[in-house]
Amino acid sequence: MTSGSRVVPSRRWRFLLVLLAFAPARLTGQDSLPVDDAGRKPIATRADLESALTQAEQIAASDGYSAELRDQKRAEAALIRERLREGDFQVGDQITVHVEGDSTLSGTMTVGPGKIISLANYGDIPMTGVLRSEVNDYLKQQLSKWVKNPEVDARSLIRLSVLGGVSKPGFYQLDSGMLLSDALQAAGGIGNSTDLHNSTVKRGEEEIVAKEVFYEAITVGRTLDALNLRAGDEIEVGTKSTTNWLTTLRTVAIIPALIISLYGLGKLFGLFN
Questions:
Q1: Is the pLDDT of residue 248 over 80?
Q2: If residue 69 lies in a helix (H) or strand (E), which one and from where to where?
Q3: Contact at 8 Å (CB) between 54 and 68?
């Protein structure tokens, strides 16, 4: 190798670099952790998100990766920054809560306007800035204003729409620790017409989970939380083309015969001399 020459990695090494680049998005090994009986994985902590943000920013700023991957990491970093700044809870989100020995505070709490939970006969609990991983300790702290040493078990749900290539498209309240694949199953599951390679997640008009990331999330077992989803996001499951090629071929085959027949009728009636 001459001085100043550029080393071009082989195709195999380029593939390995891409795989390594996706690894930080899995929130410090979260994908390798086991699921619980309900198919849920642990939720990303603030430290997990800060670590994932650092790694995403490093990849986005590096020339060692493709422009497409750097763009994906910039988008991921923006989602994580928003989570760290604003918290996870949006209006319409629900939290299932069990307070030991207090049935009046146990049940499903809904985040209302102003990102506030209003408890009858007690008061309001602000949810701005709170992460899903913090909700258990946070609610315990807040409820201690009215209940002495409350024992709290809380899980967060996200209000999402699942559209496209699923059997029962619609709006769902889904556990934030649920696998993306299980979220599709909750919407009736996929079928022969489903195209996971052409699936994505949108927030309004913006695509926040690219098709490649969506498919990778299905194959490695990533959760809704690990994808940085929030209330109102749309999971758009792709569908395959339903063109009936046999019918198309038959139609094409009929055209020459039709032309010949029309020409024959034209000759018969003296239209073609």
A1: no
A2: helix 67-86
A3: no
pLDDT band for position 103 (50/70/90)?
confident
Looking at the domain that runs over 158-239, which CATH code has it been given?
3.10.560.10
* Relative orientation angle of helices 11-22 and 67-86, to the nearest 10 degrees: 10
**pLDDT tens-digit profile of 144-157?**
999 899 999 999 99
Q: Is 0.85 surpassed by the pTM of this model?
A: no
Domain 94-156 matches domain 158-239 at the CATH topology level: no
Residue 22, pLDDT > 80, answer: no
CATH number of 94-156: 3.30.1950.10
Lookup: tokens for 134? 């913090």
The answer for residues whose C-beta is within 8 angstroms of residue 159's C-beta and 6 or more apart is 90, 92, 93, 94, 171, 172, 173, 231, 232
Separation CA 233–CA 100 (nearest Å): 33
**C-alpha closest to that of 60 among 72, 51, 49:** 72
List the domain boundaries for the chain.
Answer: 11-85, 94-156, 158-239
- pLDDT value of position 37: 53
Joined tokens for residue 132: 């899903």
Residue 182 structure tokens: 């299980």
Residue 20: strand pairing partners: none
Q: CA 262, CA 40: separation in Å to the nearest integer?
A: 66
HSE-up (13 A, CA, CB side) for residue 226: 29
| CA–CA distance, 56 with 253 (Å, rounded to integer) | 55
Write the DSSP symbol of residue 8: P
What are the residues facing 116 on neighbouring strands?
112, 126
How far is residue 207 from each of residues 30, 32, 93, 173, 210, measured CA to CA in Å?
A: 24, 26, 21, 21, 7
